[in-house]
Amino acid sequence: MSEWEIIRQYTQRPPVDVVGAIRALGILYREEPMRQDQSGYFQKSGNYYTIGVNANESPQRKRFTAAHELGHYVLHRDLLQNGQHLDRLFSGPFEATSGPNRISPYHEVQANRFAADILMPAALVSQRFQRLMDVGAVAAEFGVSPSALKIRLKNLNLIA
Known about the structure:
Layout: H1 3-9, H2 18-24, E1 28-32, E2 38-45, E3 48-54, H3 59-76, E4 85-89, H4 105-119, H5 122-132, H6 135-142, H7 146-155
Parallel strand pairs: 1-3
Antiparallel strand pairs: 2-3, 2-4
């Protein structure tokens, strides 16, 4: 089964089980206390990968960070060399901790879009929002923040 097929299995109904998808792909998932300005990281150790999220953040933020880091795994893991990790920092640059490979703002946008796509699948979000017309209720159903859902709804042209 391909990685996309595995991920798709976990995105069929809300709330998407992003941690289940991560584990099904053989990635170690960890929640651990981190600095206030760090939401998560993605690390390569030999043939193994780890996604870590800040245990001190809200459940919605942890889910988005986990999905974001999964996006880096799917889309950008070839940029990491053994022993490198990517830190998700809000107060500074996002880059490989050593070596020539840098993660650009474009890579960040890609990982954010990936996270939104898997946590809030377009067809499911559209269906639920058109039925309920309530951002808070739909956000709760998908396990995301109302602000994340509003961005997704705008990108899907469901709200102005």
